[in-house]
Amino acid sequence: MSHPADSTLTCRPSRNGSGNAVWTAPVQPLIRKLATAESALHAAHLLRLGEHDRAMRFMGYVNDAHIERYCGEAGRNERCVLAYFEDGVVRGVAEAVFEARPAWRGTCELALSVESGHQGRGIGTELMRRAIVLARNRGATPVRILFLRENRRMRALALKLGMSLAVNGTEIEASLRPQWPNQFTVLAENLGDGHAWWSRWLAGNTSHAKRAAHV
Ligand SMILES: CC(C)(COP(=O)(O)OP(=O)(O)OC[C@H]1O[C@@H](n2cnc3c(N)ncnc32)[C@H](O)[C@@H]1OP(=O)(O)O)[C@@H](O)C(=O)NCCC(=O)NCCS
Protein backbone atom coordinates (compact mmCIF):
# COMPACT_ATOMS: atom_id res chain seq x y z
CA MET A 1 0.00 0.00 0.00
CA SER A 2 1.40 3.39 -0.82
CA HIS A 3 1.44 5.50 2.28
CA PRO A 4 -0.46 8.83 2.22
CA ALA A 5 2.56 10.61 3.62
CA ASP A 6 4.80 9.13 0.92
CA SER A 7 2.94 10.76 -1.94
CA THR A 8 5.29 12.95 -3.92
CA LEU A 9 4.27 16.39 -4.99
CA THR A 10 3.95 16.32 -8.75
CA CYS A 11 3.48 19.62 -10.58
CA ARG A 12 2.17 20.09 -14.07
CA PRO A 13 1.60 23.24 -16.12
CA SER A 14 -1.91 24.11 -17.24
CA ARG A 15 -3.23 27.03 -19.35
CA ASN A 16 -5.17 29.96 -17.97
CA GLY A 17 -7.80 31.95 -19.89
CA SER A 18 -5.07 33.87 -21.76
CA GLY A 19 -3.31 30.66 -22.82
CA ASN A 20 -0.33 31.19 -20.49
CA ALA A 21 1.19 28.19 -18.67
CA VAL A 22 0.37 28.12 -14.96
CA TRP A 23 2.04 25.70 -12.56
CA THR A 24 -0.52 23.87 -10.49
CA ALA A 25 -0.49 20.84 -8.20
CA PRO A 26 -3.05 18.08 -7.70
CA VAL A 27 -4.62 18.08 -4.24
CA GLN A 28 -2.37 15.86 -2.08
CA PRO A 29 -2.79 14.44 1.40
CA LEU A 30 -0.72 16.58 3.72
CA ILE A 31 0.50 16.52 7.33
CA ARG A 32 1.32 19.87 8.87
CA LYS A 33 1.32 21.73 12.17
CA LEU A 34 -1.84 23.71 12.92
CA ALA A 35 -1.48 27.34 13.95
CA THR A 36 -3.23 28.44 17.16
CA ALA A 37 -5.65 30.46 15.01
CA GLU A 38 -6.72 27.21 13.30
CA SER A 39 -8.18 25.64 16.44
CA ALA A 40 -11.62 25.53 14.71
CA LEU A 41 -10.21 22.98 12.22
CA HIS A 42 -9.04 20.84 15.13
CA ALA A 43 -12.43 21.12 16.85
CA ALA A 44 -14.34 20.27 13.65
CA HIS A 45 -12.25 17.10 13.28
CA LEU A 46 -12.84 15.99 16.88
CA LEU A 47 -16.57 16.75 16.56
CA ARG A 48 -16.74 14.46 13.50
CA LEU A 49 -15.38 11.48 15.46
CA GLY A 50 -18.01 8.80 16.00
CA GLU A 51 -19.33 8.18 19.53
CA HIS A 52 -16.99 5.24 20.15
CA ASP A 53 -13.88 6.98 18.78
CA ARG A 54 -14.69 10.11 20.77
CA ALA A 55 -14.94 8.03 23.94
CA MET A 56 -11.62 6.34 23.09
CA ARG A 57 -9.95 9.69 22.40
CA PHE A 58 -11.12 11.35 25.64
CA MET A 59 -11.27 8.14 27.69
CA GLY A 60 -14.94 8.67 28.43
CA TYR A 61 -18.00 10.53 27.15
CA VAL A 62 -17.53 14.24 26.41
CA ASN A 63 -20.06 16.59 24.81
CA ASP A 64 -19.55 19.04 21.93
CA ALA A 65 -19.15 22.03 24.26
CA HIS A 66 -16.27 20.27 26.03
CA ILE A 67 -14.50 19.69 22.71
CA GLU A 68 -14.94 23.31 21.61
CA ARG A 69 -13.64 24.57 24.96
CA TYR A 70 -10.74 22.11 24.86
CA CYS A 71 -9.61 23.21 21.38
CA GLY A 72 -10.08 26.89 22.22
CA GLU A 73 -7.65 26.47 25.11
CA ALA A 74 -5.00 24.90 22.87
CA GLY A 75 -2.91 28.05 22.54
CA ARG A 76 -2.48 28.44 26.28
CA ASN A 77 -0.44 25.28 26.75
CA GLU A 78 2.86 24.25 25.31
CA ARG A 79 0.93 22.27 22.71
CA CYS A 80 1.72 21.29 19.15
CA VAL A 81 -1.02 19.91 16.90
CA LEU A 82 -0.08 17.92 13.80
CA ALA A 83 -2.97 17.56 11.37
CA TYR A 84 -3.51 15.18 8.47
CA PHE A 85 -5.43 16.91 5.64
CA GLU A 86 -7.26 15.23 2.79
CA ASP A 87 -8.95 17.46 0.19
CA GLY A 88 -8.31 20.38 2.52
CA VAL A 89 -10.16 18.79 5.47
CA VAL A 90 -8.49 17.65 8.71
CA ARG A 91 -9.10 13.90 9.01
CA GLY A 92 -6.52 13.02 11.65
CA VAL A 93 -4.63 14.74 14.46
CA ALA A 94 -1.70 14.02 16.78
CA GLU A 95 -1.38 16.39 19.72
CA ALA A 96 1.79 16.79 21.74
CA VAL A 97 1.42 18.56 25.08
CA PHE A 98 4.69 19.48 26.78
CA GLU A 99 4.43 19.62 30.53
CA ALA A 100 7.62 21.59 31.13
CA ARG A 101 8.55 25.07 29.92
CA PRO A 102 10.84 24.85 28.08
CA ALA A 103 10.03 21.29 26.96
CA TRP A 104 13.60 20.05 27.51
CA ARG A 105 13.70 16.93 29.77
CA GLY A 106 9.98 17.28 30.65
CA THR A 107 7.17 14.87 29.89
CA CYS A 108 5.32 15.00 26.59
CA GLU A 109 1.75 13.69 26.55
CA LEU A 110 0.41 12.58 23.16
CA ALA A 111 -3.18 12.14 21.94
CA LEU A 112 -4.22 10.74 18.61
CA SER A 113 -7.38 10.60 16.49
CA VAL A 114 -8.27 9.55 12.95
CA GLU A 115 -11.83 9.75 11.57
CA SER A 116 -13.46 6.38 11.00
CA GLY A 117 -13.58 6.51 7.18
CA HIS A 118 -9.81 7.06 7.15
CA GLN A 119 -8.65 4.52 9.74
CA GLY A 120 -6.59 1.45 8.91
CA ARG A 121 -4.55 3.26 6.23
CA GLY A 122 -1.43 4.01 8.26
CA ILE A 123 -2.42 7.63 9.02
CA GLY A 124 -2.41 7.11 12.81
CA THR A 125 1.02 5.48 12.64
CA GLU A 126 2.50 8.31 10.56
CA LEU A 127 1.01 11.04 12.79
CA MET A 128 2.31 9.31 15.91
CA ARG A 129 5.75 8.72 14.37
CA ARG A 130 6.04 12.43 13.51
CA ALA A 131 4.77 13.50 16.94
CA ILE A 132 7.50 11.39 18.58
CA VAL A 133 10.15 13.04 16.37
CA LEU A 134 8.75 16.44 17.34
CA ALA A 135 8.93 15.56 21.05
CA ARG A 136 12.45 14.18 20.61
CA ASN A 137 13.60 17.39 18.89
CA ARG A 138 12.45 19.36 21.93
CA GLY A 139 14.29 17.02 24.29
CA ALA A 140 11.07 15.81 25.95
CA THR A 141 11.23 12.58 27.95
CA PRO A 142 9.32 10.41 28.52
CA VAL A 143 6.76 10.57 25.71
CA ARG A 144 3.48 9.06 26.92
CA ILE A 145 0.06 8.23 25.62
CA LEU A 146 -2.85 7.08 27.77
CA PHE A 147 -5.69 4.95 26.40
CA LEU A 148 -8.36 2.52 27.51
CA ARG A 149 -7.45 -1.15 27.86
CA GLU A 150 -10.08 -2.13 25.28
CA ASN A 151 -8.43 0.10 22.64
CA ARG A 152 -6.78 -2.70 20.60
CA ARG A 153 -5.87 -0.51 17.67
CA MET A 154 -4.02 2.02 19.87
CA ARG A 155 -2.31 -0.80 21.74
CA ALA A 156 -1.07 -2.33 18.46
CA LEU A 157 0.12 1.07 17.25
CA ALA A 158 2.04 1.84 20.46
CA LEU A 159 3.76 -1.56 20.38
CA LYS A 160 4.61 -1.08 16.71
CA LEU A 161 6.40 2.20 17.59
CA GLY A 162 8.46 0.54 20.33
CA MET A 163 6.58 1.93 23.33
CA SER A 164 6.38 -0.03 26.57
CA LEU A 165 2.97 -0.60 28.12
CA ALA A 166 1.93 -0.34 31.77
CA VAL A 167 -1.57 -1.53 32.60
CA ASN A 168 -3.35 0.34 35.37
CA GLY A 169 -6.91 -0.92 35.90
CA THR A 170 -8.96 -0.02 32.82
CA GLU A 171 -6.19 2.19 31.42
CA ILE A 172 -2.89 1.61 29.67
CA GLU A 173 0.01 4.02 29.68
CA ALA A 174 2.36 3.58 26.73
CA SER A 175 5.69 5.33 27.13
CA LEU A 176 8.96 5.83 25.36
CA ARG A 177 12.23 7.54 26.26
CA PRO A 178 13.43 9.02 22.97
CA GLN A 179 17.13 9.27 22.23
CA TRP A 180 18.79 12.67 22.00
CA PRO A 181 17.77 14.65 18.94
CA ASN A 182 20.28 14.75 16.11
CA GLN A 183 20.68 16.52 12.76
CA PHE A 184 18.57 13.87 11.02
CA THR A 185 15.56 14.20 13.36
CA VAL A 186 15.72 18.01 13.13
CA LEU A 187 16.03 17.75 9.34
CA ALA A 188 13.05 15.33 9.18
CA GLU A 189 10.83 17.82 11.04
CA ASN A 190 12.07 20.76 8.95
CA LEU A 191 11.53 18.85 5.70
CA GLY A 192 7.94 18.12 6.80
CA ASP A 193 7.40 21.83 7.54
CA GLY A 194 8.97 22.80 4.21
CA HIS A 195 6.87 20.29 2.27
CA ALA A 196 3.72 21.57 3.99
CA TRP A 197 4.58 25.21 3.19
CA TRP A 198 5.31 24.37 -0.45
CA SER A 199 2.09 22.30 -0.80
CA ARG A 200 0.00 25.13 0.61
CA TRP A 201 1.65 27.61 -1.73
CA LEU A 202 0.94 25.37 -4.76
CA ALA A 203 -2.62 24.69 -3.59
CA GLY A 204 -3.17 28.47 -3.34
CA ASN A 205 -1.67 28.89 -6.79
CA THR A 206 -3.95 26.14 -8.13
CA SER A 207 -7.14 27.71 -6.82
CA HIS A 208 -5.97 31.12 -8.08
CA ALA A 209 -5.28 29.57 -11.53
CA LYS A 210 -8.71 27.91 -11.55
CA ARG A 211 -10.39 31.21 -10.73
CA ALA A 212 -8.35 32.97 -13.43
CA ALA A 213 -9.33 30.30 -15.99
CA HIS A 214 -13.00 31.07 -15.35
CA VAL A 215 -12.77 34.82 -15.98
C1 LIG B 1 -6.09 4.75 17.31
C2 LIG B 1 -6.26 5.40 15.95
C3 LIG B 1 -5.69 6.81 16.00
C4 LIG B 1 -5.47 4.58 14.91
O1 LIG B 1 -5.48 5.27 13.68
P1 LIG B 1 -5.33 4.48 12.29
O2 LIG B 1 -5.10 5.48 11.22
O3 LIG B 1 -6.44 3.55 12.11
O4 LIG B 1 -3.98 3.67 12.57
P2 LIG B 1 -3.15 2.80 11.54
O5 LIG B 1 -3.89 2.62 10.26
O6 LIG B 1 -1.80 3.40 11.48
O7 LIG B 1 -3.12 1.38 12.26
C5 LIG B 1 -2.37 1.19 13.43
C6 LIG B 1 -2.35 -0.27 13.84
O8 LIG B 1 -3.59 -0.62 14.42
C7 LIG B 1 -3.76 -2.05 14.25
N1 LIG B 1 -5.10 -2.25 13.74
C8 LIG B 1 -5.65 -1.83 12.61
N2 LIG B 1 -6.93 -2.20 12.54
C9 LIG B 1 -7.18 -2.89 13.68
C10 LIG B 1 -8.32 -3.53 14.21
N3 LIG B 1 -9.48 -3.52 13.56
N4 LIG B 1 -8.22 -4.13 15.42
C11 LIG B 1 -7.06 -4.14 16.10
N5 LIG B 1 -5.94 -3.53 15.65
C12 LIG B 1 -6.02 -2.92 14.46
C13 LIG B 1 -2.72 -2.53 13.30
O9 LIG B 1 -1.69 -3.16 14.03
C14 LIG B 1 -2.21 -1.24 12.69
O10 LIG B 1 -0.88 -1.32 12.32
P3 LIG B 1 -0.48 -2.21 11.01
O11 LIG B 1 -1.52 -1.92 9.96
O12 LIG B 1 0.88 -1.71 10.66
O13 LIG B 1 -0.51 -3.60 11.49
C15 LIG B 1 -7.74 5.44 15.50
O14 LIG B 1 -8.26 4.15 15.56
C16 LIG B 1 -8.61 6.38 16.33
O15 LIG B 1 -8.71 7.57 16.05
N6 LIG B 1 -9.25 5.86 17.39
C17 LIG B 1 -10.08 6.70 18.25
C18 LIG B 1 -9.27 7.65 19.13
C19 LIG B 1 -8.28 6.88 19.97
O16 LIG B 1 -8.48 5.74 20.33
N7 LIG B 1 -7.16 7.56 20.35
C20 LIG B 1 -6.15 6.97 21.20
C21 LIG B 1 -6.15 7.53 22.58
S1 LIG B 1 -5.65 9.22 22.63
Please outline what is shown here:
By secondary structure, the protein is of the alpha+beta class. The protein has 6 helices and 9 strands.
Describe this structure in words.
The protein is α+β, with helices and mostly antiparallel strands and 215 residues long. It has a single domain (21-213), classed as 3-Layer(aba) Sandwich (Aminopeptidase). Helices cover 38% and strands 26% of the residues. It has 6 helices and 9 strands, in the order βββαααβββαβαββα. The strands form 2 sheets. A 7-stranded mixed sheet has the order 3-4-5-6-7-9-8, with helices on both faces. The longest helix is centred in the C-terminal third of the chain and has 31 residues, at 183-213. The radius of gyration is 19 Å and the shape is globular. Residues 1-13 and 23-27 have low confidence and may be disordered. The protein binds coenzyme A. The site of coenzyme A has 23 residues, from helix 2, strand 6, helix 4, strand 7 and helix 5.
SSE blueprint and pairings:
Layout: E1 12-15, E2 21-24, E3 30-33, H1 39-48, H2 51-58, H3 64-72, E4 78-86, E5 89-98, E6 108-114, H4 123-137, E7 143-148, H5 152-160, E8 164-168, E9 171-176, H6 183-213
Parallel strand pairs: 6-7
Antiparallel strand pairs: 1-2, 3-4, 4-5, 5-6, 7-9, 8-9
Helix pairs in contact: 1-3, 4-6
